[in-house]
Recover the amino acids of this structure.
């Protein structure tokens, strides 16, 4: 029986152990190798001249003074890039998964994909966009040279706000697009939704903006480019979500075959999606290395990262929910507008969010218009749980509004509308098929863990201290898809090691530990005998990288099938060694045994025997196997979060005092790692709800939150100890039952937090506060409520 079909056997052998992360010993000892740790002899250093304007025509670039700076060896511009034939970055922003709603143009209109040149040549379209590259012997000399470059700009009108960018008469970023609206499409059945609203007893509406934030990974981007004149081959050292994708992108930009490109990444200090797409600097260091005939390196400053890292969220939503007299959900309808920035990196947040707009609830009809607009801001990326926190936030706020306005209990209103297990597989009104799930069980468990029943006593106690206490709840669902192709190659080494080559890439998720756990269970080896090999396209020919909850879900399947092949080949070799029929050989706990006897041979001895000169021809050679599969079918993680807050009415300060989350990941290979992922996700979601904001000045397009003095990140002392629990209802979309566990913490958090804050102030008549729910906004809401009551 194969490992994929032997779930009960795998469970008995110990899947689900909280094994400590083995990579941590190396990382905490300073033995990691991040992007800035790569160096080459004779390397030069690069700095970039970046546009100080949000929108400006480039009339000329004078770099004569820069070349007089000691150590400066070259200045390259967009004209040089064009002369050498560098192409725009091939982001491919339109989702292609056949199991998702297609992102087509409304009424047959086409989608406009705004190109992304590696250096702006005629027009700069956001503050921080690179317009020239200065290369010197040292980073300091390159920075001095960059300050001497004089760019003649003609400032143009700019637009940064999502609503404004969509308006007629807004400054247009790309004339060839005709307007800033680059996607306009409708999902669902508008006629059915309108009919449901016509017969509804209750209708609630929410118009809101889920603001723009950025990922702020611990490690800023860095890149080292090398060109081998003898072979014509380029090597790029740069951390990312997946080296295989970057290899293809770099080859296309440079106009060379993929065989002429190698991309290497080892440790990656944080990602959350901000590193998954290609960046201009990655191509520029490789190109400059060829032109200068020496390696070229660039390391991003934190201010550059704030300005130019692909940002996230930024959705304007106007949605309505229709209910019958008993509180049954009838339909939703509305418009979501995604601000994708100056260049089209991805439309995934718009599409993935919209197709899950009904969340885990039975909503018979829906119609959601989805628009994407261009603006003079950094491009939008697919940040953790791309698109889903926005729509979950809107749905959960609508439910709370309906409950408060029309007399329903918030928990019971949700529970009565949850999709029941008996309805699985369930097709939502956008045609997305949820495979399995016990949504009510997850909500009930979260409510119990959070002691919802005892909350009113805690509210009264807080009121006695002069504080307003509130509680909020939010359910969520994810869609885990991602690049569908993954490959694993497993090699059993006679010296006692098992090498696993796979196309995913960790940025802190504990792959070295959890992936090894699978091999330990399937092959019976020790944890320390498994060596994970990733992050080098010379070793990893295929792979989709880490995003969209795909790493363990797809990696586990291909590793299982490759492990099956190892066992089958090993059984034949063992039969030759033991002079028995292959059918009489059984495998367990690293040993091949002749059934009914004590005659056996170890897995590593089998690997050594296969390399002997007298090994039978069909069996000779390394004991290795590979599996390369394309799996487009998604899985659907889900769960429920409950947040409890206290508000100081004198200052508006919000304190999170309790936070509870129940998340279904299908199967948890390493629960400790899953809990860690959940905790990190909660911190990100709470950060969005209360503090984080990419604050662009509407008049100038300047980013006013481009330092840690201005961009407020959550800190450990700002958060309580979380109560998290893992639910394991196996997914039916893959043989291992995995759903994915890296994004759930972030998805319901904004809704749970804002629902809690509004609940704390509901007795004053406050119905809604926009994110981030800063003390100033809370204070203003309290004062406005007081004025209304007088």
């Amino acid at each position: 029986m194969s490992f994929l079909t032997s779930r009960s056997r795998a469970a008995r052998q110990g899947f689900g152990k909280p094994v400590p992360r083995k990579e941590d010993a190396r990382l905490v000892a300073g033995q990691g190798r991040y992007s800035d740790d790569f160096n080459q002899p004779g390397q030069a250093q690069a700095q970039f001249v970046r546009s100080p304007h949000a929108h400006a025509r480039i009339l000329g670039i004078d770099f004569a003074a820069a070349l007089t700076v000691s150590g400066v060896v070259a200045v390259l511009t967009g004209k040089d890039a064009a002369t050498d034939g560098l192409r725009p970055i091939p982001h491919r922003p339109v989702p292609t998964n056949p199991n998702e709603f297609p992102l087509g143009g409304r009424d047959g209109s086409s989608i406009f994909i705004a190109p992304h040149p590696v250096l702006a040549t005629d027009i700069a379209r956001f503050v921080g966009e690179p317009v020239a590259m200065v290369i010197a012997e040292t980073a300091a000399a390159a920075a001095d040279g960059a300050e001497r470059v004089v760019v003649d700009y003609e400032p143009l009108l700019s637009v940064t706000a999502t609503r404004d960018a969509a308006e007629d008469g807004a400054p247009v970023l790309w004339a060839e697009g005709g307007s800033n609206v680059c996607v306009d499409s409708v999902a669902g059945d508008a006629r059915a939704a309108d009919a449901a609203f016509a017969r509804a007893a209750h209708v609630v509406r929410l118009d809101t903006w889920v603001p723009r934030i950025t990922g702020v990974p611990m490690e800023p981007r860095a890149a080292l480019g090398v060109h081998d004149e003898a072979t014509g081959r380029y090597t790029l050292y740069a951390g990312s979500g997946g080296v295989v994708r970057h290899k293809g992108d770099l080859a296309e930009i440079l106009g060379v075959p993929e065989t002429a490109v190698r991309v290497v990444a080892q440790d990656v200090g944080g990602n959350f999606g901000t590193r998954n797409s290609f960046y201009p600097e990655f191509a520029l260091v490789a190109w400059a290395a060829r032109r200068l005939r020496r390696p070229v390196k660039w390391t991003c400053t934190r201010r550059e990262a704030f300005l130019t890292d692909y940002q996230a969220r930024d959705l304007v939503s106007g949605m309505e929910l229709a209910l019958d007299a008993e509180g049954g959900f009838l339909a939703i309808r509305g418009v979501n507008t995604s601000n994708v920035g100056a260049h089209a990196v991805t439309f995934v947040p718009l599409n993935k969010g919209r197709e899950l707009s009904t969340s885990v609830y039975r909503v018979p009809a829906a119609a959601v218009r989805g628009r994407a607009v261009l603006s003079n801001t950094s491009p939008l990326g697919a940040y953790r749980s791309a698109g889903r926190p926005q729509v979950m936030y809107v749905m959960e706020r609508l439910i709370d509004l309906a409950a408060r306005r029309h007399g329903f209990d918030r928990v019971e209103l949700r529970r009565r509308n949850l999709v029941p297990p008996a309805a699985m597989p369930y097709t939502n009104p956008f045609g997305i098929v949820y495979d399995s799930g016990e949504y009510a069980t997850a909500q009930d468990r979260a409510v119990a863990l959070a002691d919802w029943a005892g909350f009113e006593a805690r509210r009264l106690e807080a009121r006695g201290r002069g504080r307003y206490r509130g509680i909020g709840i939010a359910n969520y669902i994810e869609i885990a898809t991602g690049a569908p192709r993954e490959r694993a190659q497993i090699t059993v080494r006679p010296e006692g090691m098992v090498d696993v080559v796979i196309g995913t890439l960790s940025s802190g998720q504990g792959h070295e530990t959890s992936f090894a756990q699978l091999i330990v269970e399937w092959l019976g080896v020790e944890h320390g005998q498994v060596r994970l090999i990733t992050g080098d396209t010379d070793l990893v020919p295929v792979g989709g990288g880490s995003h969209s909850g795909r790493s363990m879900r797809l990696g586990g399947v291909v590793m299982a099938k490759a492990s099956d092949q190892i066992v089958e080949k090993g059984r034949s070799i063992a039969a030759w060694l033991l002079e028995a029929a292959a059918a009489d050989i059984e495998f367990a706990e690293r040993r091949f045994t002749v059934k009914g006897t004590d005659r056996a041979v170890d897995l590593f001895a089998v690997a050594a025997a296969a390399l002997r000169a007298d090994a039978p021809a069909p069996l000779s050679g390394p004991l290795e196997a590979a599996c390369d599969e394309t799996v487009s079918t998604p899985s659907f993680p889900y769960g429920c979060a409950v947040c409890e807050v206290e508000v100081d009415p004198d200052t508006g300060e919000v304190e999170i005092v309790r936070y509870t989350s129940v998340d279904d990941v299908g199967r948890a290979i390493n629960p400790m790692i899953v809990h860690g992922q959940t905790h990190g996700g909660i911190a990100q979601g709470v950060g969005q709800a209360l503090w984080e904001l990419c604050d662009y000045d509407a008049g100038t397009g300047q980013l006013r939150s481009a330092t840690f003095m201005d961009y407020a990140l959550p800190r450990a002392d700002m958060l309580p100890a979380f109560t998290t629990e893992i639910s394991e209802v196996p997914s039916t979309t893959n043989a291992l039952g995995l759903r994915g566990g890296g994004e759930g913490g972030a998805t319901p958090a904004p809704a749970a937090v804002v629902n809690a804050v509004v609940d704390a102030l509901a007795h004053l008549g406050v119905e809604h506060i926009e994110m981030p729910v800063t003390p100033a906004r809370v204070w203003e809401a309290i004062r406005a409520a007081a004025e209304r009551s007088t």
Remarks:
- Confidence is low (pLDDT under 50) at residues 7-14.
